[in-house]
Amino acid sequence: MVRPVLPGLDDIVASYDRATWGPIIEGHYALAERAGGLAALVPLLVMAFRKIKSFKGRKVILHFILPYVRCTREVLDIGLFALADKSRVVREDALALIAYSLDERAMPALIAHADHADQRDRDSAHAAIDAIRNRNHHLFLDRDHAGNVVWRVTDACGKIAT
């Protein structure tokens, strides 16, 4: 049996702070395997997030930690922090993470973000607000409430949220 080895914070920053997608994704999977699974890495990814200059690395982190937002308070905190990111794609992933959380603590930040200069950010902030108010994360994607969009996430708490 291989004993899991947690990487150091500097190793995580170096792995995600790259210019191209391929090495970031490959590094992510290698770190998760070395650590014995993503769950062990989540606290380290949260700590490393603010040190990573590459928007691609920050986006990858938000994407992979989304299933932990309902179980780990710090994941929502990093999503709220990422609302101020320079990168539009990072902010969009932060808004998705926040919407999936269904956490009322995010409402003040979302209401403030609903006045963002970028129309896409405003639209996504309103969708996240709608999702939280209706206790239905699907509404982040199903913005016209048509009922034909389902956002399935294998929640880190062990259940599939439908």
What is the helix content? 55-70%
SSE class: mainly alpha
Shape: globular
> Which strand order do you get reading across the main beta sheet?
1-2
* Count of separate DSSP helical elements: 8
The count of DSSP E runs of length 2 or more, i.e. the number of strands, is: 2
Poorly predicted regions: none
* Mean pLDDT rating: 94
* SSE arrangement, N to C: HHHHHHHHEE
Question: How many whole angstroms does the radius of gyration measure?
Answer: 16 Å
Major sheet summary line: 2 strands, antiparallel
Strand content: under 5%
Ends apart, CA distance between termini: 35 Å
SSE arrangement:
Blueprint (H helix, E strand, L loop, with lengths): L8 H8 L4 H14 L3 H12 L5 H11 L7 H10 L5 H14 L5 H7 L5 H16 L18 E2 L5 E2 L1
Antiparallel strand pairs: 1-2
Helix pairs in contact: 1-3, 3-4, 4-6, 5-6, 6-8, 7-8
